[in-house]
User: Which sequence fits this backbone?
């Protein structure tokens, strides 16, 4: 059994804070600051340009990709790290469309993270040859999979409600209809067990700053199924994905397998924080994480509904159909969340009315859940949120 | 006058090292480790998700973009930071092509950094509608500008030889022929005075890990001329470039001006190092940098040619026609460079036979130039490079 009291000590969470926003930005791993400091002072400072070889910088995107791969059911050599999630969505979608050249339809849903939809429409605007992006409600996705679909592009866990798609079943149906799949694991990696190989997913992408705790704007990752790894054409064909980057040929030749999904020079300082954050996962069972996270979220739902009837559950009640977050709706959700944050219960808000609370057992236990509900009940039942200060919108909500 | 003894003290260069590879990776600014450490421990660790507002993370790509803008002749609000240089090349080229829709030819040269050419061919592969990438010798660029060219895409300073294009004259000729320009400033920003506004450049991109000293894989930047900033369509339309990212609309609407060239969540840890590195430039005159760098490079050329006649100068002899680096050819350049590095004179090598030495007066003075030449002369004149060890190729050359 995973010892979650031990994992909690590996995070530097300020005293008194109940941090329920790991679904947006994971907290600081204790080891990250030293690790980044060493990378800067010892590797960059002392090795200078030699760091690319002697400190292994150049091979990190693959090495760290393999560490993430173990958390998402991806074989060694099928995941690579770099860029941002939006860039990785672009790469995956562009390659997937070309692997299904006779079709012109992308299917997605309104529960996909908007940036994925924006990236798709930007790509289609460039291609300008009759492609269409069809966006249906999450519950209508399965029925909308037809033989006109080139690519099914979904986020597995809905960023607003936490609703969980059945990756395996939808991928199977997509394949039966002749479509490829692009799965966004932003709210899955580190939150729930993922089995990309078992589900026969074609492409997957994700970020590392949520449940993987690698810091604000940490690098993203991309997975390509082995069957496509050597044939997918990289749309963003940067030198790091070249077969021989340091030959400096004038012509592009895609590197072997997943290497071709690398683009530019890898972000070494940021990867040091990511590498430190991944150390925490070495002794953890994702099945234990899943069980504990469902139990915490169930407890939270039960207690909130009992004490704050004016909040409406927006997440599936069945824990198996949720990711690792719970959302409640309230017309004044924004101001309520500001009042909670002012009282050190930190969740976040998504327009128009959704309050999100993430439950990761790595640093949240029953005591934190009950403490959070006490504060929520106090804020709700005494209308402590109803002030001009809490209604004032910040740049980032 | 810029006091270059003072700037040298702002870098943590190991004792005894003569670092002539700032054209590949700038050395560590003394202030960077503390600055990044503070960002991690104080901002991420204590503010957690609130850092996006209270620590100003969300607006950093523009704020730091403006700091870089001052070094390259770009007005406030025309430069934004993020991603890698290859990604920024893709954005600039994709937008520029659409702004010149009736033409199908991109003109570049063999002195462009290969990744720029790779990115162009990847983009053209996606567009798949008759675009052509024409790559000529650097000295033939001017004559090749014709009324069939949609976009002239060049790196201002040749990464191998240091040869400097005349940005102003070539842009003028391109415009007269009805073409747009994309300038890569990888070897210009922080090395030589650049006047994007004065040259009427349309798009420009660059990296910050060379002469701007922001660390391995540090974020890149993009400039869009004000006349196109509100009309350029972003091909990589991520949520950070959306008009209202936190409205989470399903449809993309490009943000105002340069904001639309943002893509994904900004890399905050890496930007802390960049911000610290840019502090060094606050008291520096780029004209002083230019004069001092030419004087150092001229001294180096004179002394190397006098003492090592078997080396062939590959850079322009006229300092005004060079960037801030000097290259010499030798058939055994790779092994010679390894021997130099083993003796703490650090330059680098570019296939097939080019040894590069960068001269930035921020941390290099006459004493370092003469010390480097002593070592080069010893290695050459005593064939100290001629060992199996030095011939053994590393992953990164």
Assistant:
């Amino acid at each position: 059994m995973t010892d979650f009291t031990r994992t909690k000590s590996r995070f530097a969470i300020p005293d008194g804070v109940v941090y329920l926003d790991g679904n947006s930005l994971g907290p600081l791993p204790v080891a990250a600051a030293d690790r980044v400091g060493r990378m800067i002072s010892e590797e960059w400072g002392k090795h200078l340009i030699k760091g690319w070889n002697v400190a292994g910088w150049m091979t990190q995107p693959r090495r760290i990709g393999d560490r993430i791969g173990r958390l998402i059911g991806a074989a060694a050599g099928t995941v690579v790290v770099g860029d941002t999630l939006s860039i990785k969505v672009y790469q995956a979608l562009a390659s997937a469309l070309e692997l299904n050249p006779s079709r012109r339809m992308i299917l997605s849903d309104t529960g996909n993270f908007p940036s994925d939809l924006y990236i798709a429409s930007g790509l289609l605007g460039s291609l300008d040859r009759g492609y269409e992006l069809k966006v249906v409600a999450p519950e209508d996705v399965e029925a909308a999979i037809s033989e006109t679909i080139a690519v099914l592009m979904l986020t597995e866990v809905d960023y607003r409600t936490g609703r969980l798609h059945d990756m395996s079943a939808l991928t199977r149906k997509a394949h039966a209809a002749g479509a490829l799949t692009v799965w966004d694991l932003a709210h899955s990696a580190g939150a729930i067990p993922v089995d990309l190989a078992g589900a026969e997913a074609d492409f997957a992408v994700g970020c590392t700053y949520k449940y993987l705790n690698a810091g604000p704007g940490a690098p993203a990752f991309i997975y390509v199924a082995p069957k496509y790894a050597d044939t997918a054409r990289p749309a963003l064909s940067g030198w790091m994905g070249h077969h021989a980057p340091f030959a400096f040929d004038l012509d592009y030749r895609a590197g072997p397998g997943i290497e071709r999904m690398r683009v530019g020079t890898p972000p070494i300082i940021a990867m040091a924080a990511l590498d430190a954050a991944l150390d925490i996962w070495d002794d953890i069972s994702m099945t234990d994480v899943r069980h504990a996270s469902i139990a915490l979220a169930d407890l939270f739902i039960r207690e909130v509904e009992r004490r704050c009837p004016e909040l409406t559950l927006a997440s599936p009640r069945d824990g198996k159909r949720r990711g690792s977050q719970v959302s409640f709706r309230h017309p004044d959700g924004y101001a309520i969340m500001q009042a909670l944050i002012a009282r050190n219960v930190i969740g976040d808000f998504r327009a128009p009315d959704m309050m999100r609370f993430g439950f990761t057992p790595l640093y949240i236990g029953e005591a934190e859940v009950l403490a959070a509900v006490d504060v929520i009940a106090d804020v709700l039942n005494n209308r402590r949120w109803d002030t001009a200060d809490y209604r004032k919108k910040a740049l980032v909500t």
